[in-house]
Design brief:
Layout lengths: L2 H5 L9 H10 L6 H4 L4 E7 L4 H10 L3 H4 L5 E4 L5 H9 L5 E2 L12 E3 L13 E3 L4 H7 L3 E5 L21 E3 L11 H14 L7 E7 L18 H23 L4 E6 L21 H4 E8 L3
Parallel strand pairs: 1-8, 1-9, 4-5, 6-7, 6-8
Antiparallel strand pairs: 2-3, 2-10, 9-10
Length: about 300
């Protein structure tokens, strides 16, 4: 049973999913997640380690034409400075936040844990979920939840690598999804499409994919490159963008789709003489990330 049946009297006819999607697109800046949940599939794409400046650069030069179709990136504050803490926050509803000074009571959140915060009152346009994560909250209202892993925190091979995948009903990882494989996005997307094809279109899906191509090592995305750099990081992003149509098409065939696309943190390369390399520490580069959410066309 979807959220709509839970919240509305049976005698009130519901608009069709297509009509709801049209209305939500037209009212994007006034998004109410209670209209989305139960109506649309939800696809959460984490471009793990993607830097804000590289995402913006590729957007402006036309290097990411697929993602560019769905509006510009927003510059936001990361939930954490490496994968593990960032995902605990994001999965609890605390997605990357606006860098504009905003009182807590006026922050726009897509998902909000019930019974938390000042007065324990959920923002009216957030989906207030039961459970420790919005993933489990969506499961409680009828969603099939699926994780396609990437970095080691999703590999199910160690105790710590089992924590995040355990939040989903289904989770998948193989070595070919990992950071050291150039074609990892191809393998991840192929698996995502295969899983989707086994789920009836009447069953709502929440899928999370940890795209790890941007993470080190990424030198193999530039022919002849011997080490990771801003250039190879950008090339990895372009590689991912080229492969997204297959994933988006598979979701669009099922009906309305709401997409959250962001990074969990940035990563430093030796472009500054400050000694910082990669991530796992507070730095302007690690603490700012690209973010956008949008609806796929149907």
């Amino acid at each position: 049973m979807g959220v709509k049946e839970l919240l509305l009297p049976a005698e009130i006819p519901l608009p069709s999913p297509r009509d709801l999607l049209k209305a939500m697109k037209e009212n994007k800046d006034n998004l109410n997640m209670n209209d989305v949940v139960g109506t649309a599939d939800i696809l959460f794409l984490c471009l793990d380690t993607l830097r804000w400046d590289v995402a913006y650069q590729e957007q402006e030069k036309g290097g990411t034409p697929v993602l560019n179709q769905y509006g510009p990136w927003e510059k936001r504050g990361a939930a954490g400075n490496f994968t593990y803490p960032s995902h605990h926050a994001m999965f609890a509803g605390f997605l990357p936040t606006s860098l504009e000074p905003t009182p807590m009571t006026k922050k726009q959140m897509l998902f909000f844990p019930k019974g938390v915060g000042m007065g324990k009152v959920s923002p009216p346009k957030s989906f207030a979920f039961d459970g420790p994560t919005f993933i489990q909250g969506l499961e409680k209202v009828g969603y099939e939840t699926i994780c396609i892993g990437g970095v080691a925190f999703f590999n199910n091979r160690s105790d710590i690598g089992k924590v995040l995948p355990a939040m989903f009903r289904q989770s998948y990882w193989t070595p070919k999804f990992g950071c050291t494989v150039k074609q990892s996005p191809d393998h991840q997307i192929a698996k995502a499409v295969q899983v989707l094809e086994g789920i009836p279109s009447t069953k709502r899906v929440m899928m999370y994919i940890n795209i790890c191509a941007l993470h080190y090592p990424n030198a193999f995305y530039v022919n002849g490159a011997k080490k990771d750099s801003l250039e190879t990081h950008a090339a990895a992003l372009r590689y991912v963008d080229e492969r997204l149509p297959k994933l988006f098409d598979a979701f669009s065939r099922r009906g309305p789709v709401f997409v959250i696309a962001c990074s969990d943190h940035g990563s430093c390369y030796p472009e500054h003489d400050d000694g910082y390399v990669f991530h796992g520490f507070n730095h302007e580069v690690t603490n700012t990330v690209p973010y956008k959410h949008f609806f796929l066309s149907t």
